[in-house]
Design a protein that fits this description.
Structural class: alpha+beta
Pfam family, one: EMP70
Number of strands: 14
Protein name: Transmembrane 9 superfamily member
Strand order of the largest sheet: 7-6-12-11-14-3-13
Main location: Golgi
Shape: elongated
Number of domains: 3
Number of helices: 9
Strand content: 15-25%
Order of helices and strands: HEHEEHEEEEEEEEEEEHHHHHH
Subcellular location: Golgi apparatus; Membrane
InterPro entries: EMP70, MFS_trans_sf
Largest sheet: 7 strands, mixed
Length: 422
Amino acid sequence: MTAFRCKFLVFCLLASSLCCLTTAFYVPGVAPVEFNKGDDVEIKAVKLTSSKTQLPYEYYSLPFCKPTVVEYKTENLGEVLRGDRIVNTAYNVKMDKDQGCTTICEQTLDAKMAKTLVQRIKEDYSVHLLADNLPAATVWPNDASGMQLEHGFKLGLVRDDKELYINNHLSIILHYNKQPDEDTYRVVGFDVQPRSLDSSVMLDAGATGDFCHEQGQQKITEETTKLKFSYEVQWKASNIRWASRWDSYLGMGDVQIHWFSIVNSIVVVLFLAGVLTMIIVRTLRRDIAQYNREDDDLEDALEETGWKLVHGDVFRPPKRIMLLVSFVGAGVQLFGMAIITIAIAMLGMLSPSSRGSLLTASFVLFILMGVFGGYFSGRLYKSLKGQLWKRAAAQTALLYPGICAAIAFLLNFFIWGKHSSG
């Protein structure tokens, strides 16, 4: 007993010393970040997205101003698959310190980059930024509710279906919460107001002035060779607590929702279900009418025709048992993954502040649910008197993921050709 206690004590001491050597970490957006007045508030870029295309692009695929050192942030699996490429930007923001109109840089465009920029504006791309892990939102007036929020800000605008203007000036409005008995600040809101401003009225790179109140817009064409970018920063006190800072995003419109595709899919499913129901009802009605005839001469013949012939087929194994059990196992795996993911999301464990966590959780759960998918697949295969259970197990594990991987592998060639971050 004494030897056991000594071993246990040694194990505890070793475990405690290992814990002292480890570094703590937190899930981004779950723990609040405290700022003092004048501290740097880093503005990061995520990606460019559009409601008209399915292709995201990284921020510096367009000629935005770059900082001295470009650093891409650590990403999880979900962010990579979503096309997120989080990177630092050239915006210089200090906590609770307003900044006037500042020119960031002047960019020189070649013909290819100018053409790409024009194409992105025509495709209605939006730019997504982050401040203290809070996504930027554009505030639009709405007659129904007064104000409406949308993720990111528009890269540019199209007028008269031919004239294009780029939003090269950004008004950054940050909201902070500060308790009277505390000296620290917390970021609780991040609004942006994009604007197209004529580069000729801007000052030289790095200069600050009052030029952003001038009139004139920056037109963009395939012949454009130079562009200037600028920004201004305004801080506003807010009564919103840090724990409630995501509430305003719940009613936001998502630029990634393709309503036409959703409605089209629902209509097609309903139409096919109606056609199938009509065929089945007409077939059964005809057969039942034949069976209800009072002609005794047809009674024996009718027993050999119609849908009653299949009454004994439920006891006969199908021709392709292995294919059946593979898809049944994949169905159980997907169903279990979906149910648990929805349950975890309903409990609030997949915070929106941790981007990509939902997709990452889905992939991890799909792998774990492979145990149950394999169990039900093997059980069904055994009940159907199958003999090659090892081959059935391997096919169940590889068939559905293999099909998805092959499709993704093929699609990635097209996405790669478009230089998308997806």
